[in-house]
């Protein structure tokens, strides 16, 4: 039976088939597809979350090219407008285009123009000649200081479909804001999501509610799998059925009566680490992947998840997280008895408003020390399951602290580490960290 697309899915398909740069609105979508404005609004918001469109104040919603995760650090000009809280003064039809790199125009015009190339963004103040020449060379313009562009520059921007953006911030602040946005995307890029594993060209194998147990046995023979998601006629997930579920049931029994209802699911945006933890914790071999309407998109197996996490660990790292920055100043030291210890100084960024070591930072340091200690005995991944912290004494700014993790239990699925934090040979904090272990 052919799956019937919902109104929401029809709108998303319509948006996806629009030309890059096409402007849309809630009212227009509602009128053209014969749906309510509320339905159109929700679908456009979903399209924005999927990276199909971008909404810019005073311009509207524009169809943009959906970026692959390998290019996630690239920004569109529409996104730049939102980052700097800017206003588009010309060339709005080019907002969907992708920014390759930005050039700061804090130099003489002759020197500056040498760096301006097609696909660039020139960040410059009130310099009309620089605006015009930049556009002629195929680069967009971001005018800082709240200045406007001349009518000639605006006409040229519209003609060449290259945005001219004005914002109130100074050049240095704007550059820092764009850099921060790109840097955040680099961090996101190295976090594997469920959608990175899904193959859209390979639809999931499933059974239907009205199938019989005999169909389950046929599927096992055909696919060699022993677990299947169960969907209705519209593709909505209702349950999971395994070999264990059908034992003792006749071949004519409906799958709906033997399946496990309301199974645990993940979405394409779920991180693989979270999916792996769910599988280990619940003892699940297969997780269905669903969209916001709970329609089945695919399945991921525990083996696939672990292989992907292994692959990602071999990739070069780009961009540091907050945790990376916290532990950066700590070195690993071996004590006389061969035990490991981590030593570092409390930096200003690690303190609370009173100048003491922040509880959040302390938690991050303890967790990282525990994980590093476990990795010496367990070659795999791990997720913190529980942390009990006793903060005994405050530690002040610029004091040296020693962190001593000690493994007290290590099983196949769980590891427990006792962690003590010292300052001047006095215990200032203690913690018990329990981690779920994921085999590689």
TrEMBL record:
Q: Which superkingdom is the protein from?
A: Bacteria
What are the CBS domain coordinates in residue numbering?
A: 198-257, 259-315
* Alphabetical list of SUPFAM superfamilies matching this protein: CBS-domain pair (SSF54631), HprK N-terminal domain-like (SSF75138), Thioesterase/thiol ester dehydrase-isomerase (SSF54637), Winged helix' DNA-binding domain (SSF46785)
Return the PROSITE patterns for the record.
CBS
The alphabetical list of record keywords is: CBS domain
Q: Which Pfam families match?
A: 4HBT, CBS, DRTGG, HTH_24
**Which parts of the chain span the membrane according to its record?**
none
Q: List the PANTHER family.
A: CBS DOMAIN-CONTAINING PROTEIN, CBS DOMAIN-CONTAINING PROTEIN CBSX3, MITOCHONDRIAL
Record-given protein name: Putative transcriptional regulator
Query: Species name for this entry?
Result: Melghirimyces profundicolus
């Amino acid at each position: 039976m052919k799956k019937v697309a919902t109104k929401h899915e029809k709108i998303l398909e319509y948006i996806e088939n629009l030309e890059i740069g096409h402007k849309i609105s809630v009212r227009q979508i509602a009128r053209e597809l014969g749906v309510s404005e509320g339905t159109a609004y929700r679908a456009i918001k979903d399209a924005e979350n999927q990276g199909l469109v971008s909404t810019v104040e005073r311009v509207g919603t524009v169809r943009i090219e959906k970026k692959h995760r390998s290019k996630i650090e690239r920004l569109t000009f529409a996104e730049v407008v939102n980052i700097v809280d800017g206003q588009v003064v010309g060339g709005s039809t080019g907002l969907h285009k992708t920014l390759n790199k930005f050039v700061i125009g804090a130099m003489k015009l002759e020197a500056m123009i040498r760096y301006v190339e097609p696909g660039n963004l020139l960040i410059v103040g009130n310099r009309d000649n620089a605006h015009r020449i930049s556009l002629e060379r195929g680069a967009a313009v971001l005018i800082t200081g709240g200045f406007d562009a001349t009518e000639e520059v605006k006409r040229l921007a519209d003609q060449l479909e290259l945005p001219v953006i004005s914002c109130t911030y100074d050049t240095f602040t704007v550059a820092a804001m764009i850099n921060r946005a790109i840097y955040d995307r680099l961090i996101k890029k190295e976090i594997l999501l469920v959608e990175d594993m899904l193959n859209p060209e390979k639809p999931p194998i499933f059974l239907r509610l009205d199938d019989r147990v005999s169909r389950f046995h046929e599927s096992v023979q055909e696919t060699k799998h022993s677990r299947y998601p169960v969907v209705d006629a519209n593709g909505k997930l209702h349950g999971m059925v395994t070999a264990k579920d059908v034992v003792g049931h006749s071949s004519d029994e409906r799958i709906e009566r033997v399946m496990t209802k309301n199974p645990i699911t993940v979405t394409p945006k779920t991180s693989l680490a979270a999916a792996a933890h769910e599988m280990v914790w619940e003892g699940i071999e297969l997780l269905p992947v669903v969209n916001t309407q709970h329609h089945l998109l695919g399945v991921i197996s525990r083996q696939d998840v672990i292989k992907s996490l292994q692959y990602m660990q071999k990739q070069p790292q780009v961009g540091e997280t907050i945790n990376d920055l916290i532990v950066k100043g700590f070195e690993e030291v071996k004590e006389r008895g061969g035990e490991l210890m981590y030593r570092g100084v409390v930096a200003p960024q690690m303190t609370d408003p009173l100048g003491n070591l922040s509880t959040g930072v302390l938690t991050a340091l303890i967790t990282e020390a525990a994980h590093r200690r476990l990795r010496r005995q367990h070659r795999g991944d791990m997720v913190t399951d529980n942390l009990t912290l006793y903060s005994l004494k405050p530690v002040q700014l610029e004091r040296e602290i020693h962190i001593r993790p000690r493994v007290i239990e290590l099983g196949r699925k769980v590891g427990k580490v006792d962690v003590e934090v010292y300052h001047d040979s006095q215990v200032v904090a203690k913690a018990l960290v329990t981690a779920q272990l994921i085999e590689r």
